[in-house]
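Fig. S4 source data, part A: sequence.
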Amino acid sequence: MKSDTRVLSIDIGAVGAVAVLTGDGDLVAVHDMPVLLDGPSGRRAVNGPLLAEIVANSHASRAFVEFVGARPKEGPVGAFAFGRSRGVVEGVCAALGLPVTFMTPPQWKRIVEIKPGKEGAKDAARAKAIARWPSHASKFARVKDDGRAEAALIGLAGLLKEAVK
């Protein structure tokens, strides 16, 4: 891909994020997932119009999105909220004509060399993002910036995977 090409990458969920990268893997922007407290029981939920604005303004030609499903021991409300997030992301991308490639967490983490498992994975993602994009280190500085780091790394993994093809 060329450096003037833009790709979008998304870590799905209410604490996820949206990143914009060039086709060469340079970080252009990273946004926290736009959420409002209007989900079931007042839970955080991804807001479609706010997400659509970010996606449209990215001028991306495609998207890499984390493929997620219901998690073990998750209650029905949580599973529904997670599924709703995925639906909003897919719907926004489809409405804007943006092709989506899904990547499972083990798949994208293997490509960017983050060890499997949950222990330390969030900090590892932040450390990897800071090392890859040191001029944007402040965007990944806080513990709660793990979604930003993961979103950016999902996009990088997608680009690396396609470069091998």
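Fig. S4 source data, part B ends here. Strands lie at 6-11, 17-22, 27-32, 35-36, 45-46, 62-66, 100-103.
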